[in-house]
Amino acid sequence: MNAKITLFLSAALITTISCTNSKKNTHEKNQENEHHWSYSGETSPEHWIEIEKNSDCDGKHQSPINIIHKNADSVRIQEDLKIQYTPTTLISEVENNGHSIQFDFETGDSINYKNETYYLKQIHFHEPSEHKINGVIYPIEMHLVHVNKTGKITVLGLLGEEGDESQLFEFFESFLPIKEGAVKDIHQKIDLSSLFLEDKHYYSYEGSLTTPPCTENVNWIVFKEPIVLSVEEVLKLRNNMPINNYRNEQPLNERIVTYHF
């Protein structure tokens, strides 16, 4: 009899612990979901520093910024930036990470900035643009993220305006739609030299990632001349991303913006 009672109590205890752990795990998952950053509501950019406590999101050198052309230091284009894109670079995959559409690259294309080589890692999009020029917001902004061997980052920001169709964007969008959280293998060549970036004027400044952890000391290069894509291409990208997936303008805080012409 005592053995039966003991067995019953042991089973009840195990069930209680199991239920408690289950509730705890569910609670922890809910907390994680509640506190993950986003672009709207209680986890929008205004609250990132509250939910990303170990981030740089409240730093003094944050991005994006509003670039005021007349306030920028102007210099002749020298050899600071060398674009070394080729027609044979391979996109490895595309992902809808819940924040943007991101294309990841295999080792190949690179840029040389201030005598350092940065390798193209990924391209993603924001709609509308994060950077402004003279207060103008563009329909879309493309970020080409490059990383050197020590982990330092240089991002090329291309603003997009609506007009004729873009063959490059048609290629990107041939892999859409893609559901949130999904990843598609691609392993296809892409020719980014068609962007002709070496012929464009650009602004440069020291800033940060525009998403948490908002890491500072990122080299930003924002091209003055926008690329052109169709309204339909803008809409197709928008329909695969969160609405208004941009961070609000950040204070310049005595930083110098340089215009290279």
TrEMBL record:
Zinc recorded as keyword: yes
PROSITE patterns in the record: ALPHA_CA_1 (PS00162), ALPHA_CA_2 (PS51144), PROKAR_LIPOPROTEIN (PS51257)
Reactions catalysed according to its record: hydrogencarbonate + H(+) = CO2 + H2O
Recorded superkingdom: Bacteria
Keyword annotations from UniProtKB, A to Z: Lyase, Metal-binding, Zinc
Region (Disordered): 24-44
Ranges of biased composition (kind: Basic and acidic residues): 25-37
Catalytic activity, EC: 4.2.1.1
Matches recorded under InterPro entries: Alpha_CA_prokaryot-like (IPR041891), CA_dom (IPR001148), CA_dom_sf (IPR036398), Carbonic_anhydrase_a-class (IPR023561), Carbonic_anhydrase_a-class_CS (IPR018338)
Pfam families: Carb_anhydrase (PF00194)
Record keyword Zinc present: yes
Signal peptide: none
Transmembrane regions listed in the UniProt entry: none
Domain Alpha-carbonic anhydrase per the UniProt entry, residue ranges: 35-261
Cofactors (names): Zn(2+)
Family: Belongs to the alpha-carbonic anhydrase family.
Function comment: Reversible hydration of carbon dioxide.
Name under which the protein is recorded: Carbonic anhydrase
Organism: Flavivirga amylovorans
